[in-house]
Specification:
single chain
């Protein structure tokens, strides 16, 4: 709830203050989004413990749909009321959801008070040696962090550079814009589809690898046959989005308690996104240094191949959590 309020405030600051306010507002927005991202796997584990993969698939589908709609409306909104309105408009949905969240807070309050004692007793039954192990010392946590970072790197590199990469192959900016929209839009369906594979611990490894393979296929396709940009955008988008669902689902499943899930989510997403933020910069520097995108896409293919290996390891249920 607080993250939604801060997000709304940050959107207003970024949109209607000049100079440093643009940067300050951006930092506030990024911080609010980060908190919301970290807490979502925890809320899923707490409220939908028996349907983690389905709940994760639904909310990540909403993320993809909303991102696609925002991309499509950005220019029309800016034309209608200027760039400030084009940015400020997105404070309205966050404020509306914050108001709706008030009803959820009120509905959960009696349940939280009634379940406080049982929850404490359930937590106390966890083995002492497990409770004392920090997530920073758990191999599973580092595998999920690597998984998160690799799939996010591919996403941010392509969101940033796909139109530029395609332009070198003679694809028009209008077509590249459509391809970028396809790259994000297919995620809604891919995320829901992969959630079916995630049901049951025995299928988690299969789902993690299945989600990762399309990324490698799509990147290799961009390298070998760049003129088929729409096809590779769809395939890669399916892989990136379904990998995101798998990663968030595994965070919820691997945490023994809601508190541990929060720590696991915080570690995986903070380190993962830091690594992913570097990706577009490195890709751009490589392209500038080599005069083309072959080196950048080759590096992305190596990362995608490594992700398949990490995904297989991350999908395995540790013995102490079976």
């Amino acid at each position: 709830f607080l993250a939604l309020l801060v997000l709304t405030a940050g959107t207003a600051v970024r949109s209607y203050t000049g100079g440093a306010g643009l940067w300050i507002g951006t930092v506030i927005i990024g911080s609010a989004i980060a908190v919301g991202n970290v807490l979502m796997p925890t809320l899923v584990k707490r409220d939908y413990g028996s349907r983690v993969s389905l709940a994760t698939g639904i909310y990540t589908a909403c993320i993809n749909i909303a991102a696609g709609v925002a991309s499509g409306l950005a220019v029309p909104l800016a034309h209608a009321g200027g760039w400030r309105w084009g940015l400020a408009f997105w404070g309205i949905p966050s404020l509306v959801v914050a108001l709706l969240w008030i009803m959820r807070l009120r509905a959960l309050r009696p349940a939280r008070e009634g379940a406080a004692a049982p929850a404490r007793s359930r937590t106390s039954t966890a083995p002492a040696d497990q409770a004392l192990i920090s997530v920073w010392r758990q191999p599973t946590a580092w595998l999920l962090t690597a998984f998160m970072g690799m799939q996010s790197t591919t996403f941010y590199v392509l969101v940033t550079w796909l139109p530029t990469i395609e332009a070198t192959s003679g694809i028009s900016p209008e077509q590249s814009g459509v391809h970028l929209l396809l790259f994000q839009a297919v995620g809604a369906f891919a995320g829901l589809a992969i959630s079916r594979l995630l049901r049951g611990s025995g299928s988690q490894t299969t789902a993690a690898i299945t989600a990762s393979i399309p990324i490698l296929i799509g990147v290799l396709g961009l390298l070998a046959f760049p003129s088929f940009g729409a096809l590779w955008a769809v395939i890669t988008g399916m892989g990136v989005s379904s990998s995101f669902v798998v990663c968030l689902t595994l965070m919820s499943l691997r945490g023994r308690t809601s508190q541990e899930t929060t720590k696991l989510s915080g570690m995986s997403q903070s380190l993962g996104y830091i690594g992913a933020a570097i990706g577009p910069v490195v890709a751009g520097l490589l392209a500038e240094a080599t005069g083309g995108w072959t080196a950048s896409l080759t590096l992305l293919a190596v990362i995608a191949g490594a992700q398949i290996v990490v995904a297989g390891l991350a999908g395995r249920v540790p013995h102490d959590r079976q």
